[in-house]
Amino acid sequence: MLSAAKHLDRPFAALRACPERSEWGDKKEPEERYWNALPFCHKLLFIKEEHTMDHTLQVLANLAVAVFVISSMLSMGLSLTMQQILEPLRNGRLVILALVLNFLVVPALAYGLAKTILANQQSLGTGMILLGTAAGAPFLPKLTQVAKGNLAFAVGLMVLLMVVTIIYLPLVLPLLLTGVTVNPLQIATTLVVLMLIPLAIGLFMKARYESAAAGLQPVMAQASNYSIILVLVLMLVLNFSNVISIIGTGGILALVIFIVVSFVLGYFVGGIGSDSGIKRVAGLGTAQRNVSAALVIGTQNFSSDPNVTVMLIVGALFMLVILMVAGGEMGRRSQGKAAEQTPAGAS
User: Fold this and answer.
1) Which of 244, 260, 263, 270 would staple 283 via disulfide (CB 3.0–4.6 Å)?
2) 122: part of which helix (H) or strand (E)?
3) Can you tell me the distance from the alpha carbon of 263 to that of 52, in angstroms, rounded to the nearest whole number?
4) 114-153 b/e with 16+ CB inside 10 Å = b?
5) Which of 212, 90, 92 shows the shortest CA–CA distance to 152?
6) What domains does the chain contain, in order, with CATH numbers?
7) In the chain, what is the greatest distance between 2 CA atoms, to the nearest angstrom?
8) Under a CB-based contact definition with an 8 Å cutoff, are residues 215 and 206 in contact?
9) Do 170 and 100 contact (CB within 8 A), yes or no?
10) Using an 8 Å Cβ cutoff, are 52 and 117 in contact?
11) Rg of the Cα trace of the chain?
């Protein structure tokens, strides 16, 4: 066995070294002959290697997400003041519209999609409802930066939606999904540790040690930029098979409709009467859901049904990609308008 294992990087050499190889006919393909000839103990080496690689990539993806969220929150805190964050939230109409859209309209949209397009895919429909009811995503500030939106409003809206989500989910989800239980403490712990504490540290440093904050902020911004690229790449690599698995189920169609309609509602309804910077945040904040909170509930209640988690993960991937592209396009248009106005203003 040791002799065969030593040559596993050279498949047919491994066959010659294996004392337990079987006979085969000439009609079989070489790869099939090789695999069938290996004893079970040797096949395990391949399986273990594949699982180890997947596990390593998953750990790296989790680490990249944590680095992204923490560095983003620190960067926001180091560049803003509490007054700047709270100022947009003093607009009562803006806050009410955001709450109505995120906790009434969007959950109703998700429920409707689950009962129509995904009526024959109960697991995927459950995932859709979980996405629709969880708001306050940590990706919102980064999407806002890409879209050249109002960053202070994005941070304030994210915190507001996150806090309401912690209270909202235990009350509403049991009404929509029979037998679901929600542990608000578990959701709150994750969000507080990864989001609120780094944000509070950044705000404190900005208020007390402004020069140090000014020097650290670009470093955190760079860490956030690099880690979001790594997150995107790893999510695509790790979840490509998941995306393939729901093709033909209606899951992708439902997700695209959900993201586009939520964004349009947020932009044109949630941001009504506001400037374009606020509208961009309202659209992105309505469409980008709090996947981490949804995953906590999904793993608590549907651990025996992997398709629920698949829907959440594929949803996270589609939201991030679609909204990052949309944000980039809005950001380019905003820069173009600013460039056109600069010469006129200068003259």
Assistant:
1) 263
2) helix 122-133
3) 38
4) beebbeebebbbbbbbbbbbbbbbbbbbbbbbbbbbbbbb
5) 90
6) 2-38 (no CATH), 53-331 (1.20.1530.20)
7) 86
8) no
9) no
10) no
11) 24
- Write out the two tokens for 55: 């596990």
Q: How far apart are CA 69 and CA 183, in angstroms?
A: 22
Q: Which amino acid is at 22?
A: S
Q: Residue type at 55?
A: H
Rounded Cα distance between 289 and 139, Å, is 9
Token duo for residue 155: 């941070």
Three-state secondary structure readout of 74-115: HHHHHHCCHHHHHCHHHCHHHHHHHHHHHHHHHHHHHHHHHH
pLDDT digits (tens, 9 = 90+) for 93-151: 999 999 999 999 999 999 999 999 999 999 999 999 999 999 988 889 889 999 999 99
Residue 4 has pLDDT above 50, yes or no: no
Q: Report residue 340 as tokens.
A: 């056109």
Where helices occur in 177-305 by DSSP H, the ranges are: 184-191, 197-208, 210-245, 251-265, 276-287, 291-301
The end-to-end CA distance of the chain, in Å, is 81
- 201, amino acid identity: I
How deeply is 300 buried, as exposed, middle or buried, from its count of CB atoms within 10 A (0-12, 13-18, 19+)?
Answer: middle
